[in-house]
Amino acid sequence: MFGTNKMIKKPTKKFLNETMNYLFPIIKQAGKMALDSWKKVKIAKYKDNRDIVTKTDIEIEKFLKNKILSKWPNHGFWGEETERINSSSPFQWLIDPIDGTKYYAKSAPFFYVHIALLFKDEPILGLIYNPISRQLFSAQKNNKAYLNNKLITSKSPVPFNKAIIDIDFGGLTDKSMKEKKWMIDKLYKIMEKSYRVRISGGSLSAYLVTGAIDAYVDFADSKPQDLAARLIIMQEAGCKIKWMKNSFQKKILIVSREPIFSELKKIINENY
User: Fold this and answer.
1) 129 and 77, same domain (yes or no)
2) Checking CA distances to 209, which of 6, 68, 136, 140 falls within 20 to 30 Å?
């Protein structure tokens, strides 16, 4: 029964529906917490000279952890800012309390709250909330994707020469010159064949499902907390997803619809 301490052996449709309904007001409340603190951001710590954690990150993650584990105390919880809990559970909650903290701290309106639920390492439920626009993206396994509870419909195929490709390169300081050159070569090839390239650091990725961009390529090997909610929403909206490895044994993520998807795979695989 929903809300009891009994461990659910596998995620039923009823469980997912009830869980989603429980999370809708909670993620919106988390977004309001981010907005309320936006004009008075306080930095809690620095991960490096530009990667920060705000007090609001910590407060939102604590809020979400309490709300989730009070309902499902046997589930695992893996947030960006706190220690992982119950890592052996088949159910794992992945949380990014403020995706885009660097922007958030500098008054740029490009930040989101991410919640995802995994079952045996597979995303089965995801929510992304933009508190500025009040847009709530949501999806659950085998039940399509929605924007503010409105079904996201399939988009017409876009040829590669008319495609807008969003790329996240992540940090480059830990990469060799050979790897950097490989990435630049791939960027050039994508630029040469597509309509436009955007390098938003993932800020535009949720809007792949609306057609604002036509593909998302992640060279950054982004953290699971950043990707889990995005991936199930994109997949349920009709996108294809592919993890690839380059010759440097680094993971590359490609998300798009056809025919762009196949063209991007070809470019990443090419040796030239």
Assistant:
1) yes
2) 68
